[in-house]
Design a protein that fits this description.
CATH topology of the largest domain: Rossmann fold
Largest sheet: 7 strands, mixed
Number of helices: 12
Structural class: alpha/beta
Number of domains: 2
Distance between the termini: 40 Å
Strand content: 15-25%
Shape: elongated
Order of helices and strands: HEHEHEHEHEHEHHEEEHHHH
Helix content: 25-40%
Radius of gyration: 21 Å
CATH architecture of the largest domain: 3-Layer(aba) Sandwich
Length: 298
Amino acid sequence: MGIKSNLDSEGLRPQKKFGQHFLTDPRILESIVNAADITSTDTVLEIGPGLGHLTRVLARRAGRLIAVEVDRALAAKLTTEFASASNVSIIQGNFLNEESAGWIRRHSNQIAGAGKRSPAPLSMPFKVVANLPYYITSAILQHLLENEPRPQVIVVMVQREVAQRIVARPPSMSLLAVSVQLFGQPRIVRTIAAGAFYPPPKVDSAVVRLDVFEQTRLKADQLPRFFQIVRAGFSGKRKQLRNSLAHGLSINAESISTALLNAKIQPSRRAETLTLDEWLALFHTLSILPIVGTKKSG
């Protein structure tokens, strides 16, 4: 039975508001799971399992699998299908409403409530595998990386253009590249044509693997200010850093120029040319100056 027929038989339709595009090619699904190096000792968090095509492959490989689905009808369908799977929990909810630890804890409660074998301790490292809705890709990555505990590995399917922005290097850096590369090392595993999905999206996709660093280079309470500086730097497209930062941070241009030179960065440079190390150096030189407001990355 084809995917459209399967949906019709269940009285279901792809929900545009959730950005649903279903991938069914078994070779591609296997390649995504292979990219995450899933084994029987792994805890895996899947975001947006949809019809469960990727979920079925993950369930065969992972020690435990927590799949969080926002669509109530699809979550109910998957709950019925995986009712007898001792290592799988299907949880209905918006992933962005709770930190990863909360979703994993719910899995533990479900397993205990069903009288199934106890899963590994919550402190165990976990991996994330997901086919992310395009419209909330950045929000989900931010949610995963800026809250603890962080995943050990993230393998996600995203819009190809977004994947290229994630792995970008100077002189083509982006706010998203800095936001992700602060926490880990990304690489594009493969690209996937739009025709591999139902319904097909308007653009091609790519699978990105991010190996998350064990230790971050900034403390949690430093992140809002760091990202505000980076956001200000990128706020003026093709503008010199001195001008973008002065306007975005409400600091006079002379002080900004001094901070840039102290960080060994020429004030005339543009944001997309800076390396992550240079952004961190700039953060430290600007940390003694007052900055109006705080914002997270996005």
